[in-house]
Design a protein that fits this description.
By secondary structure, the chain is mainly beta. The protein is about 5% helix and about 30% strand. It has a 3-stranded antiparallel sheet, with no helix packed on it. A hairpin with a 2-residue loop joins strand 18 and strand 19.
Length: about 200
């Protein structure tokens, strides 16, 4: 392997090889003067190739990735000239967060089951242990704890039902059971109360 350009230049009485470039400590591009006597003033890389690496202004660090959307990544090509086409995150890590595909968005909450939620871990690697919904909102629906399951019906009293509101925040006004099934029992209108006795 031959000597470094600067070393070769110094062997010839020059500080650097004319026309060669390098990156300064501040990330700016420096070019060797035409007579090899030293390096010119640092120059900021252009806006579309802002990264200085190995004496070249690049658009991105080869192999690095950024989020193209909430579900896809862009990966920098091998020359650093730009990013390739968006690639969808894998099904087991479908969310793009902080330039990587993760299992879930940190801090997000989803239903673990009908009565519990669980929260995404800080690194997005998965969900924590289930946490029970509060007694005043015991049902998990659409990733939130609500009072009742929208559309469900319960007995308001012995002769009336009431349905859960569309947002799950509570129950609507009581509705009377039909004459042919006038008794509310186990959240449904029935003809008579099971076990009850009447005169035939």
């Amino acid at each position: 392997m031959g000597p470094e350009p600067d070393a070769a230049a110094r062997d010839g009485g020059q500080e650097c090889v004319p026309g060669s470039t390098r990156c300064s400590e501040s990330g700016q591009l420096e070019s060797c003067l035409s007579d090899g006597s030293g390096w010119g003033a640092p120059a900021t890389c252009p806006v579309d190739t802002p990264l200085c690496l190995d004496g070249v202004c690049m658009a991105c660090l080869p192999g690095s990735s950024i989020c193209a959307s909430d579900t896809a990544l862009l990966t920098c090509n091998s020359s650093g000239s730009g990013y390739g086409a968006p690639e969808a995150c894998a099904p087991e890590a479908p969310v793009c967060w902080e330039d990587a595909c993760v299992t879930c968005l940190p801090g997000s909450v989803v239903c673990a089951d009908e009565g519990n939620t669980h929260s995404c871990l800080p690194d997005g690697s998965g969900y924590g242990a289930p946490e029970a919904c509060a007694p005043e909102a015991p049902v998990c629906w659409e990733d939130a704890c609500v009072t009742c399951l929208p559309g469900s019906v319960v007995c308001a009293d012995e002769g009336n039902t009431h349905g859960c509101l569309p947002d799950g925040s509570g129950y609507g006004a009581p509705e009377a059971c039909a004459p042919e099934a006038p008794v509310c029992w186990e959240d449904a209108c029935v003809t008579c109360l099971p076990g009850s006795v009447v005169c035939a």
